[in-house]
């Protein structure tokens, strides 16, 4: 299974991020390209503890079997809800231009890869680096497909 800490998988994702342009339009959802890049970066900043988690949901999704199914088995539907910390419409961040958002995202991606310990996830709870790596890859893939990349 693809994951973000595999060099070939990361290289593919980085190329897809870099292929985004001002003419990249969403195929579903409400975010613009720059907002989507901010959204992906916010996931990485949650993992790094830069953005504090305000949501700690204990649901069936935090149980290992369901977390595994969400990360490895079940395809993600379009327009899934997101954690408030990552919701660009609720956070109303000062989103930068496309080039800057790409740079910031890829910088955070390198930081996550280099980190020895990552924080828990608002929905999935405490996760290993391997699970984070899979989640990050699947999340990036989902949104890059959303923008045709």
TrEMBL record:
Which Pfam family would be a valid example here? DUF1569
Naturally occurring in which organism (per UniProt): Limnovirga soli
InterPro entries the record matches: DUF1569
This chain belongs to which protein, by name? Answer: DUF1569 domain-containing protein
């Amino acid at each position: 299974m693809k994951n973000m800490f595999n060099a070939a998988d990361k290289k593919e994702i980085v190329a897809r991020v870099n292929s985004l342009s001002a003419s990249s339009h969403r195929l579903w959802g409400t975010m613009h390209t720059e907002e989507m890049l901010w959204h992906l970066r916010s996931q990485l900043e949650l993992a790094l503890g830069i953005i504090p988690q305000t949501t700690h949901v204990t649901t069936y999704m935090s149980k290992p079997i369901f977390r595994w199914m969400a990360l490895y088995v079940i395809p993600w539907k379009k327009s899934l809800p997101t954690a408030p910390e990552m919701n660009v419409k609720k956070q109303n961040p000062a989103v930068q231009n496309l080039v800057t958002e790409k740079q910031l995202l890829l910088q955070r991606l390198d930081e996550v890869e280099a980190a020895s310990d990552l924080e828990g996830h608002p929905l999935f709870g405490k996760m290993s680096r391997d699970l984070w790596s899979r989640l990050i890859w699947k999340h990036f893939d989902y949104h890059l497909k959303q923008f045709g990349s």
